[in-house]
From TrEMBL:
PANTHER family from the UniProt entry: BLL6794 PROTEIN (PTHR33376:SF15), PTHR33376
Key word Signal present: yes
UniProt KW keywords: Periplasm, Signal
Protein name according to UniProt: TRAP-type C4-dicarboxylate transport system substrate-binding protein
NCBIfam families: TRAP_S1
GO biological process: transmembrane transport
Compartment annotation: Periplasm
Signal among keywords: yes
Range of residues in the leader sequence: 1-25
Cellular component GO terms, alphabetical: periplasmic space
InterPro entries linked to this entry: DctP_fam, TRAP_DctP_sf
Amino acid sequence: MIVKSMKRTLLAGLSVALLSPLSAAAETKILFNIFVPPSHFYWDVMRDWATQVHDKSDGRLTIEFTPKSVAPPPKVMDAVRKGAADAGFLANIYLGPKNPGAHVGLMPWVHQGDSEATSVALWNTYQKYFSDAEKWRGVHLLGMYHFGGGALCSVTDEKIESAEDLSSRKVWSLKGNLDKMLKNLNVATVNGPAVQIHEIVSRNVVEAFTGITYDSVLQFKIASYTKSCVQFEKSPFSINFSHFINQRVWDGLSPEDQQVLTELSGEHLARMVGAKVTEQALAGRDELGQTVEYIQPSDALMTSLQEASKPVVDAWIAKVADMGVDGQAALDFMRAEVERLSTVNAN
């Protein structure tokens, strides 16, 4: 009787297991790291993206978000490689030397004020020229996208109208190409992630800042310190990002779920993020303009910045040539794509 009872129990348990819905067992949760504050518009875009991923996968994939960043912005990719989060995004100024391809969008005078166009152009250019040439250690690349053109603003009553006006000041700047351009003009710079700019500006450490968008000036609460900004038709700098997932997590997904993420990333994600960036940039430019004076760059300033940018471009072209990539052709293609796709200028 005991044996028969055990058999019935085992059979009943097996029947329940066989008849239970597979979706619950197959559900995969992906922890995505976000380093910007919850009030930043990026959260809205990522929540929308997460909903799309969940729906398209019929509930098999759930994107969850870290309550706070698991690492400082420059170290997010390292943290994802180590498994502190399953996925994340990184400003490409922090990519290592083995991944210079995304820097094609960081070259001066690329961004024309349409971040959706620039995001798609970046992805198209990367796929055409760099996807076969670069390897991503420990992560699988899902997409890339651009934020807006970086502002150049004074926090004193003196406007920035020449290279001399810049070199006479200490200037906050993001690291990378923009910082190199400024150093070519003998400008003393203070560097750091954009999320830390308020501390620098509010303590009067610098007399100017550059590299963040108008809406970020508002977002990071430095508008009250800002007196004037130079308004460029084509930006000397704009920041872009890579969107990635831990390689082991990616390898553990079914081909169907990999396809879901692939289809909802790439150009699709570039358009999602880029369109929101442009919307924010237009609103931010208008709001900031109520208290800040916009000025057009003088011919002298433009000439100096263009001269200072040439060594930056030449160095990047030489770098990607070592990978067997024609950097000038890639840059020309990127600029042509931006020109072709742009419909609005929020610079």
